[in-house]
Design brief:
By secondary structure, this protein is of the alpha+beta class. About 50% of the residues lie in helices and about 10% in strands. The strands form 4 sheets. The chain has a 6-stranded antiparallel β-sheet with strand order 8-14-11-9-18-19, with no helix packed on it. A 5-stranded mixed β-sheet has the order 4-3-5-7-6, with helices on both faces. It has a 5-stranded mixed β-sheet with strand order 10-17-15-12-13, with no helix packed on it.
């Protein structure tokens, strides 16, 4: 073993021992977490790399394999604690010794087999993809991209919004540390039992818990800080694929492409979500593919073992990786068979390596599925994220491409023929083609979706992350540039057009990346508004003053943060964020909604308190507007009414503390049993009296009907606020679910342009982009502000739904038709193919009014100044009867 390697090992062990002895507690949490991550994950992983598992390219790319092999080694150790039935935290004391194992093996091998191989060339001609070691210039540029990823992630941290997955992960890690159980059933719910098992969570969470304990950092701080450690390694992993695809140039382009375009743009949070099990598994799966491809180019037992180790790391991080391997390696084998037209030695080598990966991963995969998998959560099993193409044939919604890859997704199908024609001899380039084509043939194949959707549900949408977009750009850009430099002038036109097209498609992502890097403050402020850490003072008070394990009744957003930031349990969870095994997920959401309903009965409150053994009620008044949740939300009016209700019975709900907008109450159950008063009347619910309301208009079959819509003012400027009041009535019982009211505003296109209906939407969007102004905008809201659930509406009630819409500043002047529609939709909406081309799409409702948008509107609306009613009434024939004094 070289002197430098020994120095790294000695320094790492010294840091490990210093952290364990709490000698570095004076450092901020970020450096402590980074050091703990380095010594617990990267140091043993580097030992396995020193043993011979080294990727082609060397240099910084080695660190990406060190990540994967370190995770695999720790996963194996955690499984040992499970088999021995001891708390997984017990092994943390012995990790310095376990870290020595791969290093000792590397030292033994170095003495046993001294290096006798000839020196390897550092690089080769551009574009061959046959270089063995990155050049110095390429190393510098890759390191700069990785450093920017680390800087950006350190500045922002892992997204900790209550909308994100972070509370789910952090709450699980906190419960793991508290219980010593690798797979706690009660991460959120005290009464969860077997339904609390989450098959998606693997062994990565146990390693994060180790890092948190060694760094003496709170799990939330650990989770926030780890993204700065993992994001740069993802950049280096992409560089490894780019190197196989196109040598030095490919490594540099792939590194920067992943930095700037992953998840659509650096302005999004996807790169900083690298600590999520799903995103980390994507990174480890890519590293596994790189090992497989490197082994195909230069077969070696060390590369095959590395592929098995990296694959084991990916599957133990998230079981979805097993499905990914089955898909991409089968597709690559088929591509090689088509290319070579025979069962070649390359195919045999691939199948052998894939078998080694399967041997390493399959036992854990089957054990985890047997232990936890039971898709009984209706919120998960409900069809979502699909697109109806014809009849009953569905595919995954094409909107997933726009949302998660940005507009650059268009490069993928356009590259298939060039990849095959000019790059198929390189297995790495063939992998770009076959993996992306296989994903498309699953996601957009109605027959495949019909069979897979009941089994995988919304995980089908995750397949888009398999597409190696950064690697594809790493091949395409040098290939196009090379073809521009060579060949006759006539042959250069197509490469020039293609290169210009890529640059145009990449321009939005590049512009957003530059903006967020140079001007981060607006983005930081926007994220801070939804950051769950702002509620930490209340959670600390609860931990300091109350026994652990209290059951807290609160709204979904706040409930999602309670286990994240405290040792307590909750009644409900947020929207989609619950285990697929949780058959009670929807019931929990509805129970919490009904119990906290300011206009609900005390009897319903008693039922929920008894069912979940509730100890505390936590009301959150920090929301300035109603949060956009699926089922209900704690808006300002809801909070004021809910607080007044509890404080009307102080003997039952003892106020313990009010802190930073949150108020905590202790529930006295014996006093709750004595409450019997009638619930207060809802001021926004009117009794239905025939003849007192305009004749109702049914906008969609099976949904509530609309009696009346009021709009004020009707002349506005961009940036102004429109006030609306819609009167709804449910003629029949509505099923529980996520309801939303969509209010849309449309005006005619300029110049009398009237495109064909089948192309109206893309034409409008192109025109909007070209002119820098919009001719349509939409605002969604929860019916009645989330204060009264649609499934509780009765036919003898008219529900007055008040809402506000801010007119965007980039809308064009003109007269806008107002449409309204009530939707019941899953977390990820289902669309029709026509919705992407026709302006009469999923959100098209009944036209119920008109507003004027002017840059310099009159100070007073004409209808308002004349004292006349500006309510839009619907005639018996379904046509619009203009308001008095209206247009």
């Amino acid at each position: 073993m070289q002197v430098r390697a020994r120095a790294v090992l000695a320094a790492g062990l010294a840091v490990h021992l210093a952290l364990a002895a709490r000698l570095l507690d004076g450092l901020p949490s970020g450096p402590r977490v980074a050091l703990a991550f380095a010594v617990l994950v990267l140091l043993p992983g580097a030992g396995w790399c020193a043993l011979g598992a080294r990727p082609r390219g060397g240099g910084p790319i080695v660190s990406s394999w060190a990540l994967g092999l370190g995770i695999a080694w720790n996963a194996l150790l955690l499984l040992v604690t499970r088999m021995l039935d001891v708390p997984f935290t017990a092994l943390l004391t012995w990790t310095p010794a376990t870290t020595l194992v791969p290093w000792a093996l590397a030292a033994w091998r170095a003495r046993k087999e001294p290096e006798t191989r000839p020196s390897e060339p550092r690089s080769s001609r551009a574009g061959s993809g046959s270089a063995l070691v990155l050049g110095r210039g390429a190393i510098f540029l890759v390191v700069v991209a990785a450093a920017l990823a680390a800087l950006h992630s350190a500045r922002f941290g892992t997204p900790l919004s209550y909308y994100s997955d972070s509370p789910d992960h952090v709450g699980t890690i906190r419960r793991m540390l508290q219980s010593g159980d690798l797979f706690p059933h009660d991460a959120f719910f005290k009464d969860a039992g077997p339904t609390g098992a989450d098959p998606r969570k693997g062994l990565w969470h146990g390693q994060v818990a180790w890092i948190s304990r060694l760094a003496a950092a709170d799990p939330a701080e650990t989770w926030r800080d780890l993204s700065a450690c993992i994001a740069p390694l993802f950049v280096m992993t992409a560089a490894g694929l780019g190197f196989l695809v196109r040598g030095n140039a490919g490594a540099v382009i792939a590194a920067w492409a992943l930095l700037l375009t992953y998840g659509g743009s650096l302005a999004g949070g996807e790169l900083r979500e690298g600590v999520y099990a799903t995103k980390l598994a994507d990174q480890l799966s890519l590293a596994t593919a790189i090992a497989v491809l490197a082994d195909l180019a230069r077969p070696a037992w060390s590369l095959r073992l590395a592929a098995a180790g990296l694959g084991f790391a990916a599957v133990t991080t998230h079981v979805f990786a097993a499905l990914q391997f089955a898909l991409v390696f089968s597709a690559l084998a088929l591509g090689l068979l088509v290319r070579d037209r025979r069962f070649s030695s390359v195919v045999r080598r691939l199948l052998g390596t894939a078998a080694a990966i399967a041997v390493a991963c399959l036992p854990f995969f089957l054990w985890r599925m047997r232990m936890a998998y039971a898709p009984t959560n209706i919120i998960h099993t409900e069809s979502q994220g699909l697109m109806r193409v014809a009849g009953s044939l569905d595919v995954v919604s094409i909107g997933v491409l726009w949302e998660w890859l940005g507009i650059l997704w268009m490069i993928v199908p356009l590259s298939w023929w060039p990849l095959w024609r000019w790059g198929r001899q390189n297995p790495a380039v063939l992998y770009l083609l076959t993996s992306s084509l296989a994903v498309a043939l699953v996601m957009f194949n109605p027959l495949a979706i019909g069979w897979l959707e009941p089994r995988l549900g919304y995980l089908l949408m995750r397949m888009i992350w398999i597409v190696p977009l950064a690697g594809l750009l790493a091949w395409a850009l040098p290939e196009l540039i090379a073809r521009l430099r060579a060949g006759p002038v006539a042959a250069r036109r197509l490469p020039a057009v293609a290169l210009a097209g890529i640059l145009v498609l990449a321009a939005p992502a590049l512009g957003q990346a530059i903006e967020v890097l140079l001007h981060p403050r607006p983005h930081l402020n926007a994220e801070a508004a939804d950051n769950a850490l702002r509620w930490r003072p209340m959670m600390r008070w609860m931990d300091d003053r109350l026994p652990a394990g209290q059951v807290v009744l609160s709204d979904p957003a706040t409930s999602y943060a309670v286990p994240m930031l405290s040792r307590h349990y909750v009644v409900t969870l947020l929207d989609q964020h619950s285990s697929p095994s949780d058959s009670l997920a929807l019931r929990r959401i509805l129970d919490a909604r009904d119990a906290l309903d300011p206009f609900g009965s005390w009897q319903r409150m008693r039922e929920v308190v008894d069912r979940y053994d509730v100890d505390l009620v936590l009301l959150n008044g920090t929301f300035r507007v109603t949060p956009q949740l699926d089922y209900w939300g704690p808006g300002p009016e809801w909070h004021a009414a809910a607080r007044a209700r509890l404080e009307s019975a102080p003997a039952t709900f003892e106020r313990l503390v009010a802190l930073d907008g949150l108020t905590l109450y202790r529930v006295r159950r014996e006093a709750l049993d004595t409450l019997a008063s009638l619930p207060p009347e809802r001021s926004f619910v009117l009794p239905f009296v025939a003849g007192h309301f305009p004749i109702a208009r049914r906008i969609e079959e099976g949904r509530p009907v609309l009696h009346r819509l009021g709009l004020s003012p009707r002349i506005l400027a961009p940036g102004d606020t429109l006030n609306g009041v819609a009167d709804w009535r449910a003629l029949e019982p509505q099923e529980p679910g996520a309801y939303r009211v969509a209010v849309r505003f449309d005006r005619a296109l300029p110049g009398g342009l009237d495109p064909p209906a089948a192309l109206a939407k893309p034409v409008r969007k192109l025109l909007e982009r070209a002119r820098g102004e919009r001719y349509r905008f939409r605002a969604d809201h929860l019916p009645a502000g989330g204060r009264y659930a649609v499934d509780a509406w009765r036919p003898d009630q008219v529900v007055r739904d008040s809402f506000q819409v801010v007119v965007p500043r980039d809308v064009a002047e003109g007269r806008y038709q107002v449409q309204i529609k009530m939707l019941r939709e899953p977390h990820y909406m289902n669309y029709r193919l026509s919705d992407y081309f026709s302006d009469r799409d999923y959100y098209t409702g009944e036209t119920v009014g008109i507003i004027d948008v002017r840059r310099t509107p009159a100070r007073t609306d004409a209808a308002t100044s004349s004292g006349r009613d500006s309510t839009v009434r619907i005639s018996p024939h379904g046509r619009l009867a203009p308001p008095s004094g209206g247009h």
